[in-house]
Specification:
This protein has 131 residues and is an alpha/beta fold. It has a single domain, classed as Spore Coat Polysaccharide Biosynthesis Protein SpsA, Chain A. Helices cover 29% and strands 18% of the residues. It is built from three helices and six strands, in the order βββαββαβα. The strands form two sheets. It has a four-stranded parallel sheet with strand order 5-4-1-6, with helices on both faces.
Length: 131
Amino acid sequence: MKEHNILGVILAGGKSSRFGSNKSLSNLSNSKLIDHVINKLSKYFNEILIVSNDRKLRINESKISVIKDCIDGHLGPLVGVLSAIKFAKKNKNYNWIMTFPCDTPFFDEKIIETMIEKNNFYKGKDFFYQG
């Protein structure tokens, strides 16, 4: 299932102002929220990118990269998506990214499977802006 040209991306760049602390590092059933998402994505992606503005976030796993937003100022999740697209195109030449919020540990993995299946339809096509 990992034979595709999609980069799995976890968006963890928010300020967590309503939550009070970095929610991606909060515990749920003896694991961090972000670890629950990483464990699900690891089954489907050869590489995972985490977009986070928290300098304390450290993941010591070779298949996981952590970057910060490409535009400063905590401007929202679309800047995280833009950051992931730039990373995918510049560093790895992925054709697609699939994004997941860091605070949704209970999403149905069927979503990933369906998107990967749909990707096979578009295989070989590059839909990134070439401007």
